[in-house]
Write a structure and sequence with these properties.
Layout (H helix, E strand, L loop, with lengths): L1 H26 L4 H10 L2 H15 L4 H13 L12 E3 L1 E8 L2 E5 L5 H12 L9 E17 L2 E17 L1 H8 L8 E9 L7 H11 L3 E3 L7 E7 L3 E8 L5 E8 L9 E3 L13 E3 L2
Helix pairs in contact: 2-3, 2-4, 3-4
Length: 286
């Protein structure tokens, strides 16, 4: 009987302590920052409890945050595994495919760079402040005819290719930069800078990818195993991973859109994308 009473008393104390903690959490103001911090620490259950408080006080659901908590719970205890490295990802994401004719008049044959500059400047009017790449599909460059102006002969050409409008897949290039990081290690976002791009949530995107792939995101380099420096502008992306102890860079990934993209890579954990020089093929019309 004494033993039974003791067990009952212990259960009562534990229940009271739990209710006290829950009451404290209810009275506190749970924020998204608090929840993200617990996710970054790997404290998935605490993050879930805080999120429950957040939903009650804000009276709304954050589906993205729910996904992160679920991923946290799913990945908990998977340190040392490398499942994310087996996931195939493409180096570029297609935004749109379009067909449009472009004209150039000049004395000699237009170069690949001239065509690219003309097309990308036109496309960027629809996608301002965004990192855009162009890939050619089927088509041809045709010579139309010639005309004279001020004693100079000008030739007119038509660029009649199907084109794909692309943007870099941050997950691919991030995977490429961190491929030497140990699974489950702690990574700090030291610099995430977007010059003139529309990626206002780039830091959150990088954080989500790292947590999706089993890493822990911390707020200070002093608490981290590695740190990330990311810079992005309208035509280039560079990601560097450094060792938080030595300060040495252990992984670098970059891409620059300064010509037609010839190939889109599909990699496991990131393979370097290759840009090849394209040869302009001129089809002369009679």
């Amino acid at each position: 009987m004494k033993k039974l009473n003791m067990i009952r008393n212990m259960k009562t104390v534990m229940f009271a302590a739990t209710m006290c903690l829950f009451s404290t959490m209810l009275n506190a103001q749970a924020t998204i920052a608090d929840i993200r911090e617990q996710i970054a620490k790997g404290e998935c259950e605490i993050a879930q409890s805080l999120y429950n408080v957040y939903k009650a006080q804000e009276k709304k659901t954050d589906y993205e945050l729910e996904r992160q908590i679920n991923d946290c719970l799913a990945y908990k205890g998977t340190e040392g595994k490398s499942n994310w490295r087996e996931e195939e990802v493409s180096s570029e994401i297609e935004i749109k495919t379009m067909s449009k004719k472009y004209y150039l008049s000049k004395q000699g044959e237009p170069s690949e760079k001239e065509w690219y500059n003309k097309i990308v400047s036109d496309v960027k009017r629809d996608y301002p402040n965004k990192m855009i790449g162009i890939k050619k599909g089927n088509g041809s460059i045709c010579y139309v005819g010639r005309w004279a102006q001020y004693e100079d002969d000008y030739k007119e050409y038509i660029f009649d290719y199907e084109i794909k409008i692309l943007e870099p897949n941050i997950r691919y290039y991030l995977n490429e930069a961190i491929r030497n990081a140990k699974d489950g290690s702690k990574i700090a976002l030291n610099q995430v800078i977007a010059f003139g791009t529309s990626d206002e949530n780039l830091e959150n995107q990088v954080m989500d990818i790292l947590m999706d792939e089993g890493f822990r995101v911390v707020s200070s380099i002093s608490d981290a195993d590695y740190f990330i420096n990311l810079k992005k502008d309208d035509n280039s992306l560079q990601i560097r991973m450094g060792n938080a102890v030595t300060g040495e860079y252990e992984g670098v990934s970059s891409v620059k859109y300064d010509g037609f993209i010839d190939e889109i890579k599909i990699g496991k954990g990131g393979e370097r994308m290759i840009h090849k020089k394209c040869t302009v093929v001129i089809t002369y019309s009679k």
